[in-house]
Amino acid sequence: MVCPLCKGVLRRGHVTYTANRHSYHLLLDDMLVWVCQQCGEPVLEEKTVEAIQHLLMTVDGGMERVRHWTRTEARDEGGC
């Protein structure tokens, strides 16, 4: 496999994936991906990208429930 950016050789390696969202930060350590030996660019397989997208959508939904709950609690306690 070759790097889509520099055409260098890709080899399996481990990286940390970080997603900074509106209400949270997600950190996935030690992910096995393809890494360019020339420029260091990580290249994720389609199934990995789909799994991350599913995880983010799940956490987004959970964060909506948390935000609703915290807004409700603040109103019940006389907050904003």
Structure description:
The mean pLDDT is 88. The protein is elongated, with a radius of gyration of 19 Å. The protein has a three-stranded antiparallel β-sheet with strand order 1-2-3, with no helix packed on it. A hairpin with a 4-residue loop joins strand 1 (10-20) and strand 2 (25-36). It has one helix and three strands; from the N terminus they run βββα. The longest helix has 31 residues, at 46-76. The relative contact order is 0.18. It starts with 9 loop residues before the first strand and ends with a helix. The chain has one helix at residues 46-76, and strands at residues 10-20, 25-36, 42-43. The chain has one domain (10-76): Ubiquitin-like (UB roll), CATH 3.10.20. Helices cover 39% and strands 31% of the residues. It is of the alpha+beta class.
